Amino acid sequence: MSKRIDVQNLNVYYGDFLAVEDVNMEVEPRSITALIGPSGCGKSTFLRTLNRMHEVIPGARVEGKALLDGEDLYGASVDPVLVRRHVGMVFQRPNPFPTMSISENVLAGVRLNSKKISKSDAEGIVEQSLRGANLWNEVKDRLDRPGSSLSGGQQQRLCIARAIAVKPDVLLMDEPCSALDPISTLAIEDLMHELKSQYTIVIVTHNMQQAARVSDRTAFFNIAGTGKPGKLIEIDDTSVMFSSPRVQATEDYISGRFG
After folding, report:
1. Would you say the pTM of this structure is higher than 0.90?
2. Which of 62, 88, 152, 193 has its C-alpha lying 20 to 30 A from 17's C-alpha?
């Protein structure tokens, strides 16, 4: 578990439009990397390339390499479904399957990947995953209730439990707290700190304080103008990025002067 990501000369296209240009980035195992930058600068697009989720959009393609412990995720023989098993994703809005129970939500990805799973194994995965998402004690007596019956913060932790149930190496989080209240946000941030001991985590956030609180490294993306591609401007340890960034545009964005 927990693998290194190396991105080399990555360009992301939607049809003829170059959305993200020439990204080079290393993401260390068992760390949290935050992607920040103004709206439309390609943060979420770039994040989705790391588990090939952007491919669900017709005409989307990439050039360059995204390596997971040296293996190219875009290799000719690589199955995108397998990539998504190793690189899990949590989205901006909690999206539990509304017709499924809490336990079935946790098991959804596992059942997709496994032909058959015994009742005792299923129960073990449900408990382990919900404990991993700091949700077990809150829901252990109502596992048969619909996932949609939970509060927003609990639903997001349920989605995290669903993501870690398949035992991925990497967790991608696309603004996982933007739809949550401050208390639920704090619970997710605490959970991220716990999860990074086992997973490589990459998070997109618009919240500068959140990036400063949770991440080990921060990457700033920016866009030169309408119709121009997003670019990685700089990446460094979060403490350095927030105290003495090398590029003026980074400092302007972090200090709130634009973006």
Report:
1. yes
2. 88
